Amino acid sequence: MITSLLAFVLTLGVLIVVHEYGHYRVARACGVKVLRFSVGFGRVIWRYRKHPEATEFTLSALPLGGYVRMLDEREGPVAPEERAQAFNNRPLLQRTAIVAAGPIANLLLAVLLLAAVNWIGQDEPKAVLGAPLAGSLAERAGMRAGDWVQAVSRDGQDWQELRSLPELRWQLTQAVGARAKLYLNLSDKDGHGRRAVLLDTDALEGRDLDAALLRKLGLGGAYSEPVLGALVPSGAGAAAGLRQGDQVLSVDGVPVLDAASLRERIRAAVQDGRPRTMQWQLRRAGELLSIEVTPRLADDAGKTVGRIEAMVGAAPQFVKVSYGFAEGLMKGAERTWEVASMTLTTLGRMLIGEASLKNLSGPLTIADYAGQSAQLGITPFLSFLALVSVSLGVLNLLPLPMLDGGHLMYYLFEGLSGRPVSEWWLAQLQRVGVFVMLLMMTLALSNDVTRLLGLH
User: Fold this and answer.
1) Is 387 found in the same domain as 266?
2) Which of 261, 292, 312 is the last residue before a domain boundary?
3) Where are the coiled-coil regions (predicted)?
């Protein structure tokens, strides 16, 4: 809980400061006087000003946003000698640049953060997959346990090399979001027997771009050898004579493809409310053995399942994924563009009812994910920070009053018509903007609560 709170505060602090600094820096470059740079809203708890005419930097009690207050004749009287420094008196292109600078700063931050992840590098599971789910898209495409996905393609001609399982999941997420097919170039886990398969990801029915939808693809997790780890001394596995390091070859005459399928066979070894004895064939120190294994029953979310009280499965193979300076920066920019495009696509699909409103997330979900990523290490946290920064940048560019994108729409109208939006229209649009923002915040918070309660 403390980790999540601290990570959430750090996330908000970094993103708000960067966003507002974008506005502040460009405003100063355009000759606009900045009165206050605030992180947070409400009561000021800390302030600093170098001299009476300088910008006042403040930290306020409610750290869920920030603002840059500029000299503006629409907000108060301006001395004649300072009129040239007022925001409303600057040329249209300068006002546009000042408003756009905040979201652009967030997008640039995302590029740098993702580039830093690429430069630092991280250990990621190799894209070698376990057995696909029965009847799934993956199984119908001819995939099997131990398949190593080495490249992906949208058209079967232009292939993009993969380095890890997270890269594959990202490509799948994009394909599902774009309703596009995805070709996979496969080999066995040792790199032999290359072949291509087609996943009909465009045929998936579902509106949520989440883990549940990806599971419909049927792709297994990272491949794990069906080898036993540590056993509970008094557990069912130890009582049957199993030992650490045993490699399971078959159960009841059916070959065991990977650790995931072995775990499922163990869980399903229940008949009429009683444990069912299984016949295991295994290899131990080069010797083939046949052993009868009777699991013990356990309750799992109201369902009775079998357990042998042992670690099942060897650790998956990991690879170090890192890039040089130029390539890392380029890939950071590419990933930022991809995330921004997918975010806009999802928002558009939500607007027309083709994607679920459950995709909206609020502060509770962000805090939860911030804590989880922080506990995993510096690179997962930097990746999370980058994704939130992209979301903040894209959200602020939406053409909604109260957001930077709304002001940019006003300036577009002014540029095309030669006159600014009238005060009456500004007031009406502001009311609409407040309503839309409150509605989005309510939906996001509702999704947060139901997600944390496990109701999604």
Assistant:
1) no
2) 312
3) none
Residue 73 a catalytic site member:
no
Do 215 and 244 sit in the same domain of this protein?
A: no
What pLDDT, in 10s, does the model give residues 146-199?
899 999 999 888 999 998 988 888 888 888 877 888 999 999 888 898 999 998
User: For residue 371, is pLDDT > 80?
Assistant: no
**Domain presence at residue 151:** yes
- What digits encode the pLDDT tens for the residues 101-144? 999 999 999 999 999 999 999 888 999 998 888 778 888 888 98
Say what the pLDDT of residue 101 is: 96
Q: Is the pTM of this model over 0.85?
A: no
Per-residue HEC secondary structure of the chain comes to CHHHHHHHHHHHHHHHHHHHHHHHHHHHHCCCCEEEEEEEEEEEEEEECCCCCCCEEEEEEEEEEEEEEECCCCCCCCCHHHHHHCHHHCCHHHHHHHHHHHHHHHHHHHHHHHHHHHHHCEEEECCEECCCCCCCHHHHCCCCCCCEEEEEECCCCCCEECCCHHHHHHHHHHHHHHCCCEEEEEECCCCCCCEEEEECHHHCCCCCCCHHHHHCCCCCCECCCCEEEEECCCCHHHHHCCCCCCEEEEECCEECCCHHHHHHHHHCCEECCEECCEEEEEEECCEEEEEEECCEEEEECCEEEEECCEEECCCCCEEEECCCHHHHHHHHHHHHHHHHHHHHHHHHHHHCCCCCHHHCCCHHHHHHHHHHHHHHCHHHHHHHHHHHHHHHHHHHCCCCCCCHHHHHHHHHHHHHHCCCCCHHHHHHHHHHHHHHHHHHHHHHHHHHHHHHCCCC
